[in-house]
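Note to self: keep these together.
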Amino acid sequence: MTDHTKGADMDRTEETTNFTAEERQAMKDRAKETRAARSRKKKDPEEIRREGEAEVRAKLAELPDADRELGERLHAMVTETAPHLVPRTYYGMPAWGKDGKVLCFFQPASKFKVRYATFGFETIANLDDGNIWPTSYAVTKLDDDDVAFLAELVRRAAN
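Structure:
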């Protein structure tokens, strides 16, 4: 092996060790989702919705109790607030989208072993408000006021 080859191998090893196991899993999940999205282009919208609903429910079922309860409540809120959004997964997390793009997502605290879950919005969300605006929210629990607040954001984002 030449010195050049040794350096390339070391760089590759360093790159893979810079990601946590959770981050590597999220990348694998995203690659799988991208392959699935290609096959969905041939399916009718109702079949896509059914498959997405099953994927989201399966991901929610895998979560620890606290994350699962938050995720189920958010899923119900998004489904009720914007029924035209299609459930799907995004980096292995529950998400909802339109026109094949993710609009909002739920990142469970357990996903990256952090102290709070996140409910976030992607760039297609219509939330622009001046020069700066929030695109994600830390969530530790949800009361009715919290759900109403997020529902209003989902309503705005989805229009």
